[in-house]
Structure formats: C-alpha cells, structure tokens
Amino acid sequence: MGSSLSKGGYLAAFTSFYTKKAKPFVHFFSMLAMTFFGLLLLTFVIGRMMPTDPVIAVLGDKAPEALYQATYIEMGLDKPIITQFFYYLNDVLHGDLGTSVRTANLVTDDILNYFPATLELATLATMFGMLIGIPMGVIAAVNQNKWQDNLVRIFGLIGHSAPIFWLAMIAIVVFYQHLDWVAAPEGRLSVMYEYTLPKVTNMVLIDTLLARDWEAFKDAFAHIILPASLLSYYSIAYLSRMTRSFMLGQLNQEYVITARVKGVSETAIIWKHALGNAWVPLITVIALTYASLLEGSVLTEIVFSWPGLGRYITDALLAADMNAVLGGTIVVGLVFILLNLTSDLLYKVFDPRAK
Questions:
Q1: What gap in Å lies between CA 220 and CA 303, rounded to an integer?
Q2: What CATH code is assigned to 107-354?
Q3: Which pTM does this prediction carry?
Q4: Which phi and psi angles does 99 have, rounded to 5°?
Q5: For residue 99, what are the β-bridge partners?
Q6: pLDDT tens-digit series, residues 82-96
Q7: How far apart are CA 193 and CA 197, in angstroms?
Q8: What residue spans of 18-106 are helical by DSSP H?
Q9: What is the mean pLDDT of residues 277-302?
C-alpha cells in the first residue's frame, strides 16, 4: 500500500512539474520544430519549381554530357523527390546549405559574413524606432485630433508612402554632399580601418568598441547613422501609428477614469499605467518590425553599398544562385519564427493573465 501511494505521489509530482514548468518549454520547442520543418519544406519546393537547372548552375551550359550525368547523380537528383527532401533536411540540420555558385564559398560561411551587417543596421534602426516612434504615438493619442496628433499622422503617412531609395538619395545629397555630416555611402568602414580592425562579432560598432579604437568607432558610426536613420523612418512611422491606436484604447478604459478620480497624476496615468498595458500588444509589433527590417533592407543596402544579407540574396537571385537564395531565405524565415515565438514568451512577462 505504501509503495503504491509512493508511486502515485511521484506520478502526481511529475505531472504537476510537467504542467507548470516543462510543458511551456516543450510546447515552445515543438512549435519551433514544426514551423521550421514547414519552412524547409516550402524552400525545398520553391527550389525544385524554379526554372533553373541546378547542375547547369554548377557546371555551366557547356559541360560534357558525361560530366552532367555524373554530377546529376552526385547531387542526388536521380532519387525520388521524397528522398531528395530528406537529404536536403539532413544537410540543413547539419549546417550545410550548399555552395554558392557566385562566390564559390559555402553558403553558411557567406551568411555568417553578411548577416551581422544587416543585424547591426536593423538593430540600430529598431532602437531608433522605439525611442522616437513610441513617445510620438503616446503624444498623438493624448492630444487626439489636435495639431500634435495631425503632425504625427502626417509624419507616419510620409514614412509609409515615400520610396526608401528616393529618401536615401535625397539624404545623401543633403547630409553627405552638401553638409558633410556623414561618411561616404560606401560600405561600413573606411579603407584605412577595414583591414586592420579585429573581427570578433563582425558588427563593426561592437568590434571597434571591443578594440577600443575610438577613431574607427567614429568612422563606423558616421557610415551607419544615415542608413540606420532612413531605415528607422519606416519603424518610427509604423510604431507611432500602432502606439497611438493602442494608447487610445487604453485611455478609454475604466481604470484610467478611476485613477483620475483618485487623484493620480496625469503623467503617471499616461506613461506608467496606460503605456504599461499598451506594451503587451506592442511586443508583437516591435518583433515584426524588427524582422521586417532584417529582411526588408535590400534597397537601403544597395544605395549605401552596405554588405548585408538582403543585398547578398538579391545578387544571388540575379545570378540564379539558388543555394544562396534558399539559404538566405531559411535564415530570414528562422528569424521571423524566433522573433514571433519570443514575443509570445514575453507576453507572460508583461501580462500576468497570459500565465
């Protein structure tokens, strides 16, 4: 009897532990695995549907027939489509995204080289977007239908409507050519620093700080500030509009009226209580904005000769380098998946009801 109760007690303790502690993590990783599997399946199908011949992309269109057939078999293209997919799945899970036809490097190595540039640019742009866009949205909501609100809405409308490449060229003419406030739109660093800076993270702002090379840091900042500011215009416009919408919803809630009746200061009501509750839906908006900047900075990277992932994928697509295109697509898709799932986890930090 004691042994039976003991076993039952262990089972109950394990069930309680799994439900309260382990289940959220199991659910998180199972969702991650299923979504990533779907992403790999989609990229595989797209790769097979493209009109380019993967063998000709590797060998060229003048390769002998015997070499073509040998390479065709070596690449596993003679196998059933299901077998090819599982070969592809195994390669990706082992970090093998193939070899780039254009650069002759492993796609994994290329992505490790190009992605930090985009990550640095998008991170700085998102930080600008949060620091400027969220306060703008709060001010617009508090002053609904007044001149402050109209000004923020016009600013956001221009941010959504104006082509980024046009804004970039205007900004280069004004801030570089005429005012000389920023560095030339030619990459991430001047030549004098590019080959002497130790590459630790491959993000130049961080690497210059780690090296304590303040002149190189100033040069890197002068290169990144203009493209990051232009890229942040989109996030500022979007975050200000969404913050305004969320704040209007919160300012009409009963707890705001109650706080005013109790004599709580208007500053505390707006910036602590209302904005605190608005942070819950803002988490997803910020995550999606960040992901969009990570994969949507192609035009900015092209105009400023920024060696980022968006430019890498675009150049690979123009060269029919499908290994590079699909490898970059997988990375971008994985970023979206991780940011979405991370925002779901952060809900539990900002909203106790989600627990």
A1: 17
A2: 1.10.3720.10
A3: 0.81
A4: -115, 135
A5: 106
A6: 888 888 888 888 888
A7: 6
A8: 23-49, 54-59, 65-74, 81-93
A9: 84
